[in-house]
Each structure stands twice: as structure tokens, then as C-alpha cells.
Design brief:
mainly alpha, 5 helices, Arc Repressor Mutant, subunit A, 0% strand
Amino acid sequence: MTSNPDTDKEGFLRNTGDWNPAIAEHLAELDGVTLTEDHWEVIHLVRDYYENYRLFPANRVLVTKIREAFGESKGNSIHLMKLFTGKPVKHIAKIAGLPKPPNCD
């Protein structure tokens, strides 16, 4: 399953229940991201948020949650841009096995 998870044309998992860390590694690799401990902190935080609220946190909420959980140095948009280049929210949702967030092209 890890080599070929069922995804849509943009690479998002069709079934969020299929997600596991190996699939996350695979999806990250397809996006050109090598996962580090900092990436996993964000991924787990977003997955927990989604589990509780059934939606992906808005960017401002995401940054605030990261700051609260991991400190000022990580709780900012620049940190997210360094980890997940380009469109961080899109990469984070995809790698975390969550649906594509609204207003995310």
C-alpha cells in the first residue's frame, strides 16, 4: 500500500483512514519533502486538530497552535515555509493524509 496509496489527481488520499507514517513518508517524497522531527510535529498537530474539529485549521489558527505547542521560534509562517516550501498548507494536508483544505489551490 505504501508504494501506491489511492490518491486523487492532486495526490491527496481518497480515504483518510488509509494514512499511516509510511504513507506520509511516501507522499512527502512525491512532494520533494524529507520529513524531519519538525515536520512530524506539524503533521501530528494537524491530524489531532482534524480529528477533533473535522476540518483543517486556517493558517492563522495553525500558526497559533504550533506556537502554543512548540514555542515562538516554530510558531510562525516562515518556519512553515522552510519546512513545506511553496504552499505549506497544501503540502501539510496532503502529507498528513487529510482532505485538501478549502481555498487551497
